[in-house]
Inverse folding.
């Protein structure tokens, strides 16, 4: 065929193949978005849990030495998740106590993070 007599445009088969390739690409991106959203959510919960542990540590630091005892409470974060916070105080020496703060939460999966610190008299 001469150049001027060739058909112009796309055939139906070419359009269908392009749509299949586009669909596969979009499905892969949708799966990636789900994974990214879950990871981002977990990071937010982990940040809240760490903040609540830090908050309790600061409270225990200003507590009089004789009143340092173990306990627990519950805190609701900005994301709506309720965190269970427990702390245990163990004497290490005459002027040092080891504090273990554990924060637990459930966002469909049970999570738990523990922080161990020393508080000096």
């Amino acid at each position: 065929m001469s150049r001027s007599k060739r058909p112009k445009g796309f055939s139906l088969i070419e359009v269908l193949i392009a749509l299949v390739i586009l669909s596969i690409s979009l499905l892969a991106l949708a799966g990636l978005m789900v994974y990214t959203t879950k990871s981002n959510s977990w990071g937010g919960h982990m940040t809240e849990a760490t903040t609540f542990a830090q908050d309790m540590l600061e409270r225990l630091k200003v507590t009089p030495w004789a009143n340092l005892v173990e306990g627990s409470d519950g805190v609701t974060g900005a994301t709506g998740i309720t965190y269970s916070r427990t702390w245990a105080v163990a004497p290490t020496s005459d002027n040092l106590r080891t504090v273990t703060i554990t924060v637990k939460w459930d966002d469909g999966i049970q999570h738990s993070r523990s922080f161990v610190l020393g508080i000096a008299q």
Observations:
- The CA atoms of residues 49 and 111 lie 10 Å apart.
- DSSP finds one helix and four strands in the chain.
- The chain has a mean pLDDT of 88.
